[in-house]
Amino acid sequence: MSYLYTIDQNTKINLSGYSTDRIDKISKEDAAAHTSELGTDLNILQEAMYAAATHSLLIVLQAMDTGGKDGTVSHVFKYINPQGCNVTSFKEPAPDESGRDFLWRAHHAVPLKGMMQIFNRSHYEDVLVVRVHDLVPDKVWKRRYEQIEEFESLLDTDNTIILKFFLHISKGEQRERLLAREEDPDKAWKLSTNDWHERLFWDKYVDAYEDAIGKTAVKHAPWYIVPANDKWYRNHAIAEKLVSVLKHYKPEWETSLKELGERNKKELAVLRARDPRLAKEAECEKERKG
Ligand code: AMP
Ligand code: MG
């Protein structure tokens, strides 16, 4: 069963061919219940990844404005131990970023072994907003697809699991969400006049997303197009994908953990053999417990 679309090889993408509405009949109640079960699984998987520290996980979240990146971070990742997960939000580059190559800030933020890293926007902005607003010459952004592919390939060979999610909403849904932000005092802080302005460039963003997704989708760094008009469906689809990918690594992580445990035991035995005080303490404790 698939709740989203997987793009894992270079291909021509036409976003109008992908639904923004849910593509599975699961009810809101069932999805909510299942998302929380998946959250428990995700927590266990993340702990195994953290402890084994052989892999890291990079999650890229991209979407049109109001597409649900922030909501995904708060609803899908609330199940994760905060010690094992970091979020980087990519804003307009600061001087120390714009003065360096476009991948520098992304590379600077890649996860340590054992860690999960969420990119809320990402290096893909450099072929999206940058292209839509002509912030660099065409020949510069056109080279970037290949540069991104090589960057992600480097991360892959270094055991970084890469999952890229495009939260796909319709233009009508965006209007509703922007209006809701205007009307709801609790959401007004999120309202950005810039979002209404960017909306004028919707079609240009669609073109840019179609190329970004189609030109950088590979087996080791796939794109997932998530039907995202319904927030609860989106959360469930993403949680389900994360669990289904990570669970393949679990046996490997458990083997590493077992080896680590055995190595620790051996090291401790050596230490106790060397220092009789430590051996004695361990024996006393065993006796005390009977
Ligand atoms: P938000 O995610 O709503 O906080 O907005 C962040 C803003 O930063 C968006 O308008 C992005 O398009 C913009 N942004 C992110 N990366 C870049 C970039 N590389 N160049 C220009 N603008 C960017
Ligand atoms: Mg915004």
Taken as a percent bin, the fraction of beta residues is: 5-15%
Largest sheet: 6 strands, mixed
- Overall mean pLDDT stands at 96
State the end-to-end CA separation.
Answer: 53 Å
Helix vs. strand class: alpha/beta
Give me the Rg, rounded. Answer: 23 Å
How many domains would you count in the coordinates?
2
Strand order of the largest sheet: 1-6-5-2-4-3
Low-pLDDT stretches are none
Report the count of strand segments.
6
Q: What's the CATH architecture of the largest domain?
A: 3-Layer(aba) Sandwich
Q: What's the helix-strand series?
A: EHEHEHHEHHEHHHEHHH
Describe the model.
A six-stranded mixed β-sheet has the order 1-6-5-2-4-3, with helices on both faces. It is of the alpha/beta class and 290 residues long. The model has no long low-confidence stretch (mean pLDDT 96). The chain contains twelve helices and six strands. The chain folds into two domains: 5-249, P-loop containing nucleotide triphosphate hydrolases (Rossmann fold), CATH 3.40.50; 256-289, no CATH class. The protein has helices at 28-52, 69-76, 95-98, 104-108, 129-132, 138-157, 171-183, 193-199, 202-216, 231-246, 250-274, 276-289, and strands spanning 5-7, 56-63, 85-89, 116-120, 160-168, 223-227. The structure holds adenosine monophosphate and magnesium ion. Magnesium ion binds at residues 65, 192, 195.
